TrEMBL record, chains A, B, C, D:
InterPro entries to which the protein is assigned, alphabetical: ACT-like_dom_sf, ACT_dom, Formyl-FH4-Hydrolase_C, Formyl_transf_N, Formyl_transf_N_sf, PurU, PurU_ACT
NCBIfam families documented for this protein: PRK06027.1, PurU
Record keyword Lipid biosynthesis present: no
Pfam family, one: Formyl_trans_N
Ranges of residues in domain ACT: 5-85
UniProt-listed PROSITE patterns: ACT
Species: Halopseudomonas pertucinogena
Name of the featured protein: Formyltetrahydrofolate deformylase
Similarity section: Belongs to the PurU family.
SUPFAM superfamilies assigned to the protein according to its UniProt record, in alphabetical order: ACT-like, Formyltransferase
Pathway terms, separated by semicolons: Purine metabolism; IMP biosynthesis via de novo pathway; formate from 10-formyl-5,6,7,8-tetrahydrofolate: step 1/1
The reaction(s) this protein catalyses: (6R)-10-formyltetrahydrofolate + H2O = (6S)-5,6,7,8-tetrahydrofolate + formate + H(+)
EC numbers: 3.5.1.10
Active site per database record: D227
Length: 283, 283, 283, 283
């Protein structure tokens, strides 16, 4: 069923819901899902509506046109997206296959509603797996002494493919600040720890040294500061003294996969709103 | 902060949200929380609003008066409750103290927003614990050969105390059908299994015999059919071959406490709507 | 690191551990992992040792020879397996790809320590995925009116491949009793509910009708009675009123995959002992 | 059933299990539970046996006497404890009642196998609750400008009561280093975050600011460095954008209670061995 998703964020005040739902009712819009959130701390209001496209007398642009005056009146940050326009996603990976294979299978079986325009990797290892899924694979090696050319090529590919979203599926390289800024709120990373614990390199090793009893993974938007962007989703798994670092890596992979795929799904369905380096997730 | 809670259920159609939110906006109602659910299967719509009492020019009855025409128009089942009018709760227990002690502590520390009018038990064991909390304790023994007099007395006490809600905190007796009907949707039980597994007696023993790897608890509204009423909340805990029946009982107690207190909290805050022997829980 | 796994089950009595550990110490055996369990209910004792192969002066057969007298003395059910002899596994699937893809990826990335001799399916759909992994694919269609020829062919293939173990990765057909008996304790199924809830067909539909708040999956050994065999592993995921049957199916897939892969891993590493239709899992 | 618990830690080498189990078999010791762990990283070996007291021809001191030569031979850190000698526990609390009430109820209902010699608090608030349970309550106010006299009094009380163990049930004060050293491995704290995230003050506030999707609690032994001691147990609960700091505090309380009571139980049953600032927990 094709839907339009109307997502707004604005300073809270009386009458927002009435105004928006009136507008939708005026045009006979059939709301299939509605979510609201008033954040007491910041005084902001967040709302997401999913509306059956065939119930409205216009397309997404038509909805944008009639909605714009309300958005202005309330000072809203807002967007309307059309479920029929699948988001274009570039996946980036390195050598580890678990997150990439998981996303590719979900895509292949129709669970992930997007278009994967290509996979970019700094290694050749995963080419065959990607190409079996009918997706272009770009090998862009990164020279540790001179990374700029590689990231210029990555930027060129991402722009050429009109990507809406970049997913770092255990890419293991830090994207340049310019790319992060240009795609702010649209670069999704999976970090293999329960942030803010174990920022940076070798988090499973850090976890083993500290002797924690649960390990986790964090899906977050990438910002300039390493592993400090808005968190979309997290989860954990129980470990014990019997698990060495290799076991943590193995157990962690399953959490990473789950957390990344859930976070990406929320993003693709326009369920995530970022405010104050935090997320509202209308799951 | 005092709020009014408007909870509705009705056949789904276009314009409900607009109508309701318009009404609230007309009176300048400040919505602190709004939840919607359209059930595709049944074609019903469910909505819960929490509105700051001090933002409206009338009290709960005033809200009921202005809302009644809308309710009629849409054929709504509905209620308005006032957070300032704490629900009157009768707790019923037997000899096991864990659920009762947990609820009493939550009440005592201000976490459970209700009035506990009394505890009724078929045994004297828990009197001192109850009375320390300043709550009346009624010992109503149940004669296995002739249960009617006991339940007449229970019914009398419940009615005398104008109870809004009865909580069976491991009461271990089956309430008579007449009482269940009279308090339909207002008698909350905790069953010590993950229903519909292990209906009836000795669920932990049944679980041990079947060799399950997780055990659970289920908080549900009581109906005439044993352990078959609408489920409010459930949870589980992992067990292993090392755990014998006594261990299951011990581990299960913690799940029972958590599940019952969460379920009761949802009920007290008018977050639960029952339809088709299932619940919508706006948690 | 190559290890021998010594797994025993016998009536409990004093001196078993001493006898076994003495034997191992006599031959200078380096125990890397040891697990014990005394079951009070049945009076049985279970033990699993993992011993470095290079620490012993003989191979697995040598270990069997020196151990046999002890086994006789204590009336043990026992086995010695050699981690260097990877178990031969036949996977069976139907049209649903999620469990199969998950197992194939784990195998491909070296996480599942076994040999997958082939995939047998009653449909052609998954051939390409299987063959990309370099594994033979056998299409054995099942005629609903006359299933015997198909299962004769399945039996023939399984025997021809000297399979140690059959994994039903959402195969959706009931194996004939003869095959279950022949491979007792070696046919692993994933059932898409938290057994014993929702035995049989369409468990997610049953779960939606009952209105449970968690759904689950169960990995178990197949016995003649449907969905009643010894449970190896289970897990659950939280759902809510917002999730319709399609959502349950989607959410359930992730639990099925995880539970099946964990259960299979335990089996492959000889961590599971069956007794009285229940399992001891030395995880 | 009365048992002796033999807990050892020593550098790993061949023959330890044989030596120990031989000794126990010699005296006809009935082992009800046995757990082993070889830590590859440190090269240490850990073992815990639970032995029926009535199966041995001597008491705990007798067991110590016959075991001492083996302990010397293998350079073991070791202890024998007698389940009949319940550990003496001093609970310390401040104003928050949830952890204290939980522990007192578990004690009262026979679930926690220990003797609670007293509760020490820097406030009077919880006196009545403690005294209802028949446990002495000591009010030792702490002068922020001059804490030494208070901690001298605490130390005096702890010593006078021959405490085996001190439990900080949300005590909210930092114990002096001298007391931590004197009771090393015997002071148990509950920290209201998933360490190492959110060390120090106001962890729920820190969690809200960071926007994490799970909050947790950590039970650990207290060492001189704040919130950095060996972790015994941890757990988490899911939160969302709807939960403000007050909600986090409320939800977190349940995790704190569970984690502290599990951690204390492991300690009381001699299931925890500390090595390298980490724990082996034979749960």
């Amino acid at each position: 069923m094709r839907t339009f998703r109307l997502v707004i964020a604005c300073p809270d005040r009386v009458g927002i819901v009435a105004k928006v739902s009136n507008l939708l009712a005026t045009y006979n819009g059939w709301i299939t899902e509605a979510s609201h959130h008033s954040d007491n701390l910041s005084g902001w209001f967040f709302m997401r509506h999913e509306i059956r496209a065939d119930s409205l007398p216009f397309d997404a642009d038509g909805l944008r046109t009639v909605f714009a005056p309300i958005a202005r009146e309330f000072g809203m940050e807002w967007r309307v997206s059309d479920s029929a326009e699948r988001k274009k996603v570039v996946l980036m990976a390195s050598r580890e296959s678990h997150c990439l294979a998981d996303l590719l299978h979900r895509f292949h079986s129709g669970e992930l509603d997007c278009e994967i325009t290509s996979v970019i990797s700094n290694h050749e290892d995963l080419r065959s797996m990607v190409e079996w899924h009918g997706i272009p694979f770009h090998h862009v090696p990164v020279d540790p002494q001179n990374k700029a050319p590689a990231f210029d090529e990555v930027t060129r590919l991402v722009q050429e493919q009109n990507a809406d979203c970049i997913v770092l599926a255990r890419y293991m390289q830090i994207l340049p600040a310019s790319l992060c800024e240009q795609y702010a709120g649209r670069v999704i990373n999976i970090h293999h720890s329960f942030l803010p614990s174990f920022v940076g390199a070798r988090p499973y090793h850090q976890a083993a040294v500290r002797g924690v009893k649960l390990i986790g993974a964090t899906c977050h938007y990438v910002t300039e500061e390493l592993d400090a962007g808005p968190i979309i989703e997290q989860d954990v798994v129980r470990i014990s003294h019997r698990d060495n670092v290799e076991d943590l890596v193995r157990l962690g992979k399953d959490v990473e996969k789950m957390v990344l795929s859930r976070g990406l799904r929320y993003h693709l369905e326009d369920r995530v709103v970022v405010h104050d380096n935090k997320t509202v997730v209308f799951s």
